[in-house]
Amino acid sequence: MQIPLEIAFHRLEKPDWAEDEIRGRVDKLEELYEGLVGCRVRVDQRADPARTPPVVRIEMSVPGHQDLVVAYEPDRLQQKFQDPDLRNAIVDAFAAAERQLIDFKRQREGGATADYHDDQNQFLGQVAEMHADEDHGFLMNKDGGLLYFHRNGLLGGDFDRLKRGDEVHYVEEIGDTGPIATKVRPAASTGR
What are the φ and ψ backbone dihedral angles of 51, each rounded to 5 degrees? Predict the structure, then answer.
């Protein structure tokens, strides 16, 4: 890489093994895409460590393109693992980074892949069901199907004030069990 690897730990002590693990996984990213210019990894404990796992954010710099970013909220790990820890957070984040880099490489080579620009992948949908007591709901997507979304996937507005029929903008991604709506924002016409 042209820019040295940056690793930062915030609000948690850095275990010796963690930095070695991150360096090894960044080496693998470089093997997957030789054009990788730089990589920044930030590990952040946002809440009580006994209740939530740390968040691992990875920013990969590639030439001629905006940075590729992987950043998952703790709820993703809590849905995937029974008792997620720092190791789970690192492994999961780097697995996503590898997939993103492979897709980016295919796209650069002329293959068909998903584009990572949110504004190009953003769709207009409508709230179909709300289960506020269970922290999730369902959107009617652009094709008339239902997409699950979680309270933590709402980027603007008040989750508890969303109601059936509200229009929202969203990004469709593949979750552990299939397509889900993420980066959900109430449409301007809803007045939020």
Answer: -110, -30
Q: Which residues contact 10 (CB under 8 A, 6 or more apart)?
A: 42, 43, 44, 45
Q: Which CATH class is domain 6-108?
A: alpha beta
Q: Please tell me the CATH code under which domain 118-190 is placed.
A: 2.40.50.140
Residue among 184, 71, 192 at smallest CA distance from 135: 184
Q: Which residues pair with 149 in a beta bridge?
A: 137
Measured distance CA(17)–CA(20) in Å, rounded: 5
Q: Give start-end residues of each CATH 3.30.160.100 domain in the chain.
A: 6-108
How do residues 71-115 score in pLDDT, each as one tens digit? 876 777 777 777 888 998 999 899 889 988 988 888 888 765 444
Q: 3-class DSSP state for residue 76?
A: helix
Average predicted confidence (pLDDT) for the chain = 85
Nearest to 94 by CA among 63, 70, 67: 70
Task: State mean pLDDT over 179-189.
Answer: 81
112 Cβ neighbours under 8 A, 6+ residues apart: 106
> 3-class SS at 120?
helix
Which residue in 90, 87, 84, 29 sits closest to 60, CA to CA?
29
Which tokens in the block code for residue 51? Answer: 């209740």
* Whole-number pLDDT of residue 60: 96
